């Protein structure tokens, strides 16, 4: 069963192109052109982990009966904190333009995060477009988060009150969505609200189509994947008019009071998402400053944005021979230290890291 489930994801573009109901032809032929890219990407990202015992595989139930989501769980080697009897817990959400991906995509980051923080780290799947459109993936991540909060202590000795999240690309949008306290999806109890969020290459404003987003000066004149842009927009396109002001889909609209108190944006400069991330970070910092001046900062807030010059979207997910490995090391190290600071603020100090 697990083999069939895995093969379904590896060949999902081809399967959906032929059998997905009510799918426009413009998506079907593009899915077929996407298939070889998917196979190459999955092979590079997942084959090294195929026979690994670095994580456990679990199935997380959702509101869709008999359709659980596959997730992988990384456990730290030992407990080394004297301050808290329970570990922190972290949810990571992989990228893939809402079109696909596997939990193993972020295995390098998740394994290192668990080892260095002493926390339990879970990476999960969700439903993909164009077969499934907004809010399908967001509902899945909501269900996963609820389940983790309910089962963290009993299953893994983890504390849902020290919950952090991260996400890559589309997963970063989902991470910011599930982090919101008052955005209309998951009303987090105050004690279990997300304490910190790290995003990598986050799409925070999906009100514009990819082709309409402002391009930075150093962006290539011709996008080699321009023919796939309708697919990249397929998760949002049919629901954009109805969700144009929805902060769950567009975190740039979310009031700072609904967002986690600690946010780190890891942002490459060769990316059509650069402009919206800069505006998002600037607005949040202004809100923090305004709260401070008004004496309304009941919680300690921190917003950071870390720019990586001459790096492109999703560069962190490329093989070492295609990028400057020092930039990946810097991004991951900064993100892990940021999460460690969140943990320390809530009484967890992994002395063995």
Automatic annotation (TrEMBL):
<dbReference type="InterPro" id="IPR050300">
    <property type="entry name" value="GDXG_lipolytic_enzyme"/>
</dbReference>
<dbReference type="InterPro" id="IPR013094">
    <property type="entry name" value="AB_hydrolase_3"/>
</dbReference>
<keyword id="KW-0378">Hydrolase</keyword>
<protein>
    <recommendedName>
        <fullName>Alpha/beta hydrolase fold-3 domain-containing protein</fullName>
    </recommendedName>
</protein>
<feature type="domain" description="Alpha/beta hydrolase fold-3">
    <location>
        <begin position="92"/>
        <end position="288"/>
    </location>
</feature>
<dbReference type="GO" id="GO:0016787">
    <property type="term" value="F:hydrolase activity"/>
</dbReference>
<dbReference type="InterPro" id="IPR029058">
    <property type="entry name" value="AB_hydrolase_fold"/>
</dbReference>
<dbReference type="Pfam" id="PF07859">
    <property type="entry name" value="Abhydrolase_3"/>
</dbReference>
């Amino acid at each position: 069963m697990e083999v069939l489930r895995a093969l379904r994801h590896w060949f999902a573009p081809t399967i959906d192109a032929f059998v997905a109901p009510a799918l426009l032809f413009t998506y079907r032929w593009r899915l077929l052109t996407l298939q070889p890219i998917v196979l190459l990407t999955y092979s590079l990202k997942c084959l090294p982990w195929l026979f690994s015992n670095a994580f456990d595989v679990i199935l997380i139930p959702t509101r869709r009966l008999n359709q659980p989501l596959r997730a992988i769980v990384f456990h730290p080697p030992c407990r080394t904190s004297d301050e808290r009897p329970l570990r922190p817990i972290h949810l990571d959400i992989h990228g893939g333009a809402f079109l696909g991906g596997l939990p193993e995509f972020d295995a390098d980051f998740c394994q290192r995060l668990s080892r260095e923080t002493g926390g339990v780290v879970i990476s999960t799947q969700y439903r993909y477009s164009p077969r499934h459109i907004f809010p399908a993936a967001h509902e899945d991540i909501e269900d996963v988060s609820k389940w983790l909060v309910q089962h963290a202590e009993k299953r893994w000795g983890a504390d849902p009150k020290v919950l952090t999240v991260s996400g890559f690309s589309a997963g970063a949008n989902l991470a910011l969505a599930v982090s919101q306290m008052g955005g209309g999806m998951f009303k987090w109890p105050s004690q279990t609200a997300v304490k910190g969020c790290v995003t990598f290459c986050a799409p925070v404003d999906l009100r514009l189509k990819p082709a309409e987003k402002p391009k930075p000066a150093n962006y290539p004149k011709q996008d080699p994947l321009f023919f796939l842009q309708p697919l990249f927009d397929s998760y949002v396109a049919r629901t954009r008019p109805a969700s144009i002001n929805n902060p769950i889909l567009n975190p740039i609209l979310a009031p700072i009071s609904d967002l986690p108190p600690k946010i780190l944006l890891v942002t490459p400069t060769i990316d059509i998402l650069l402009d919206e991330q800069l505006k998002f970070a600037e607005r949040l910092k202004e809100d923090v400053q305004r709260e401070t001046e008004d004496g309304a900062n009941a919680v300690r807030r921190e917003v950071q944005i870390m720019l990586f010059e001459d790096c492109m979207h999703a560069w962190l997910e490329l093989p070492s021979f295609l990028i400057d490995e020092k930039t990946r090391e810097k991004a991951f190290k900064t993100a892990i230290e940021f999460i460690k600071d969140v943990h320390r603020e809530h009484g967890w100090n992994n002395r063995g890291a």
